[in-house]
UniProtKB/TrEMBL annotation:
<dbReference type="GO" id="GO:0004445">
    <property type="term" value="F:inositol-polyphosphate 5-phosphatase activity"/>
</dbReference>
<dbReference type="InterPro" id="IPR045849">
    <property type="entry name" value="IP5P_plant"/>
</dbReference>
<dbReference type="GO" id="GO:0004439">
    <property type="term" value="F:phosphatidylinositol-4,5-bisphosphate 5-phosphatase activity"/>
</dbReference>
<feature type="domain" description="Inositol polyphosphate-related phosphatase">
    <location>
        <begin position="415"/>
        <end position="734"/>
    </location>
</feature>
<dbReference type="InterPro" id="IPR036691">
    <property type="entry name" value="Endo/exonu/phosph_ase_sf"/>
</dbReference>
<keyword id="KW-0378">Hydrolase</keyword>
<dbReference type="GO" id="GO:0046856">
    <property type="term" value="P:phosphatidylinositol dephosphorylation"/>
</dbReference>
<dbReference type="InterPro" id="IPR000300">
    <property type="entry name" value="IPPc"/>
</dbReference>
<dbReference type="GO" id="GO:0034485">
    <property type="term" value="F:phosphatidylinositol-3,4,5-trisphosphate 5-phosphatase activity"/>
</dbReference>
<protein>
    <submittedName>
        <fullName>DNAse I-like superfamily protein</fullName>
    </submittedName>
</protein>
<comment type="similarity">
    <text>Belongs to the inositol polyphosphate 5-phosphatase family.</text>
</comment>
<dbReference type="Pfam" id="PF22669">
    <property type="entry name" value="Exo_endo_phos2"/>
</dbReference>
Length: 735
């Protein structure tokens, strides 16, 4: 019996031990989980701390870059203003020795001829009066130049102070919100584009998404608070931007009024000076000689018209490789064309406007995409008057091609859109007028113009001599017109604010030029030249289109090119060869009938030249090195390896040409419909392309000042379009 009792006690003891072990094991597991959670939390806190420190370091670095960039921009702005001031001084000297002294010398000679044999006392008196006039003219001119210099310096100081005020106010606004919204840090990196709403809205949207990701599952109250802060920031930002834009507008209007008043004062003072002396010393000479020794109308009319004609053109240029894609009718080009800042001339160059397949390269090029681009450009430029324009049939610009079949000499053809017919809907003048020589007929009684001058005063009639050697926009017999009405442009398109003056396509290269309607009559000698540099050096998948014209007395040339591709070592030499061949081979047709006319037929002979296009120059670095510098926003290091910069500095290509400072990321090559470079999504090294500034705009000649050099962020193509705005000063021709 005692044995059984002992066995029972042992059984109870074993049960208790099992329970105890289980409890101990549960406690140990709980402790382990607690320690693991603590370690995980500590690790998360450590990572968060490292992330915050890294972000702070990046922010500091970005702020440093912004400060350096601001200082650099200020220095460049000062240099540009100094250049403008000097250019203005050079132009205001149109009465300088070469013109004014020549007229005075002619007057002295005729005074001697009239009075030397009849009245020497009168001769000496007249010569003395002329010397007094010249003395007062020199004082008048010096005084006016000093006034202009003071005005320009005052304007520069005011713009600098406004820029400093903007920077201060913006810093205060960001300082107010940044501690609360560290998710807006990326905004600092893009503050060079402060007034681009599309970019600002994109950043704000990214910030909202991040707020939702961070707080939606943890703290909805904090999420709503952050979103409210962001809305308040956006509201204050819009008020700040509107206020600054109004200040800029007021300042520009005030500067314009001041310049107009100074010009009017100059005219009045000059008229008074001429009225003071002309009756005394020149009227009697004119009566005695009968030939008008120093015609006051000649001096005041021609010279003053020139002094008031220190004119300039605002020219917008853009280049875009559209990768063979045809645009849809809802593509909006307002931001690309910067229509809020109107230009006088718009020059747009496209590359790969059609797929570079054998059909387009070897057979008949497709003009359907070109017609669509013309329609979209007109919609933006003529936005205020599109009620009339919308009556055009959309089918004319939304079909890729017209595959109607017709019989011609017993053969069948695919009938395609006619660029000539499409272009006629966007012109306010006949293209014959542009292409003809508009040199003036010379009036025999006007002694001040030479017989061989091509820039004499224009008459209302053209001589009708047309460039017959150019195939600009001409149909061939295989083409039919698109479904666009072909009424006479002068009877239908007078509502257009901007008129199309040239559209030319060579396979994938397409150039289109638009001009304000009121400036169209001043354009003449419009000519084109196409150079093929593609397959075997003869086909048009690569090459250029050059467009030449005269605007009043100034010859302009616009070159759109698509150069040899490839990023292997030595491919840049092929691109150099393309440029050299284009400059050497381009020969514009001669259409001016006046002998020895000053109408250039080579690119570099023009007064002002702008070259734009997909030049295809790459960055001489590996893909990984390039990406590393891109992530650091180290533009200087990347530009030092830019092939075009290297080749230009070595003197192997584009000698004497200029290019603006680049402040935007490489424009090639992006993934389809994405802001990521293609190399980030492509694993194959053979298909991967190193990011590069392939798309460029350069200029040649004096009297060209670049206002801006930017890119437009559109996902339409694997290239980003590049835009440049220029002020082109017109040449004053002394005759």
């Amino acid at each position: 019996m005692s044995t059984n009792k002992g066995k029972g006690l042992v059984g109870v003891s074993d049960f208790d031990m099992d329970q105890l072990n289980k409890v101990v094991q549960d406690v140990l597991n709980w402790c382990k989980n607690k320690v693991a959670e603590e370690q995980k939390y500590s690790k998360a806190m450590e990572e968060a701390f490292d992330f915050v420190c890294q972000k702070l370091r990046k922010t500091q670095e970005v702020n440093r870059l912004v400060r350096e960039r601001t200082i650099l921009l200020h220095q460049e702005t000062k240099e540009e203003m100094d250049y403008l001031e000097q250019f203005f001084k050079d132009n205001i000297k149109l009465f300088q020795n070469s013109r004014f002294d020549k007229l005075m010398e002619e007057a002295r000679i005729r005074v001697h001829q009239v009075y030397s044999t009849t009245d020497t006392h009168m001769r000496d008196e007249k010569l003395e009066e002329m010397n007094e006039f010249k003395k007062q003219w020199d004082e008048f001119k010096k005084s006016h130049e000093e006034k202009i210099s003071d005005m320009m310096n005052r304007h520069l100081r005011e713009e600098t102070e406004m820029e400093a005020g903007f920077t201060t106010e913006f810093s205060q606004l960001m300082a107010k919100y940044t501690p609360k919204m560290d998710y807006l840090e990326q905004f600092f990196k893009d503050n060079i584009k402060l007034f681009q709403n599309s970019r600002f809205d994109k950043l704000m949207e990214e910030a909202r998404i991040r707020v939702h990701q961070v707080y939606s599952t943890t703290d909805t109250h904090m999420r709503d608070e952050k979103l409210e802060e962001m809305n308040e920031f956006k509201k204050q930002w819009e008020e700040f931007k509107k206020s600054h834009e109004e200040k800029i507008s007021d300042m520009m209007n005030r500067h314009l009024r001041e310049e107009t008043e100074m010009e009017a004062g100059f005219t009045t003072e000059f008229s008074q000076l001429m009225a003071k002396y002309t009756p005394k010393e020149f009227t009697e000479i004119q009566a005695a000689s009968g030939i008008g020794v120093l015609d006051c109308a000649d001096l005041l009319g021609d010279s003053m018209s020139n002094s008031r004609d220190i004119q300039s053109l605002r020219v917008f240029t853009a280049t875009w490789n559209v990768a063979g894609k045809s645009p849809s009718s809802d593509l909006n080009l307002d931001n690309l064309l910067q229509i809020h800042r109107e230009s006088d001339i718009y020059v747009l160059g496209f590359q790969e406007i059609v797929p570079l397949n054998a059909g387009n390269v070897l057979v008949i090029e497709d003009n359907g995409s070109a017609a669509k681009w013309l329609s979209l450009i007109s919609q933006s430029l003529n936005k205020a008057t599109n009620n009339d324009y919308r009556t055009l049939k959309r089918s004319s610009t939304t079909s890729n091609s017209f595959e109607r079949k017709c019989s011609c000499s017993g053969s069948m053809f695919l009938q395609r859109t006619s660029l000539k017919a499409a272009s006629s809907n966007f012109r306010s003048e006949s293209r014959r007028k542009f292409k003809s020589c508009n040199c003036a007929t010379i009036e025999p009684e006007r002694k001040s113009y030479g017989k061989d001058s091509c820039f004499a005063r224009q008459t209302s009639e053209s001589n009708g001599y047309e460039d017959s050697s150019s195939s600009e926009e001409d149909d061939n017999t295989n083409c039919v017109a698109a479904d666009i009405s072909t009424v006479t442009p002068t009877s239908k398109n007078q509502h257009l604010r901007y008129s199309l003056i040239k559209s030319k396509q060579m396979v994938g290269i397409f150039v289109t030029i638009w001009v304000k309607k009121e400036l169209v009559p001043l354009i003449g000698h419009l000519r084109t030249s196409c150079i093929s540099r593609g397959i075997l050096g003869y086909l048009g998948n690569k090459g250029c289109i050059s467009v030449s014209m005269t605007f009043k007395q100034t010859s302009l040339c616009f070159v759109c090119s698509h150069l040899a591709s490839g990023e292997k070592e030595g491919d840049e030499l092929r691109r150099n060869s393309d440029v050299i061949a284009i400059l050497k081979s381009t020969q514009l047709p001669k259409i001016c009938k006046i002998p020895n006319a000053n109408v250039p037929d080579k690119i570099l002979d023009h007064d002002r030249v702008i070259w734009l296009g997909d030049l295809n120059y790459r960055i001489a670095l590996s893909y990984h090195d390039t990406k590393k510098l891109l992530e650091q926003n180290d533009w200087d290091a990347l530009l030092n390896k830019d092939q075009l910069k290297i080749e230009r500095e070595a003197g192997r290509v584009f000698q004497g040409w200029k290019e603006g400072r680049i402040y935007f990321p490489p424009t090639y090559r992006y993934s389809n419909n994405s802001d990521m470079y293609a190399g980030d999504t492509i694993n194959s090294k053979s298909k991967r392309r190193t990011p590069a500034w392939c798309d460029r705009i350069l200029w040649y000649g004096e009297g060209i000042y670049q206002n801006s050099y930017t890119r437009w962020d559109s996902r339409f193509s694997n290239h980003r379009p590049v835009c440049g705005t220029f002020i082109i000063f017109l040449r004053n021709q002394s005759v």
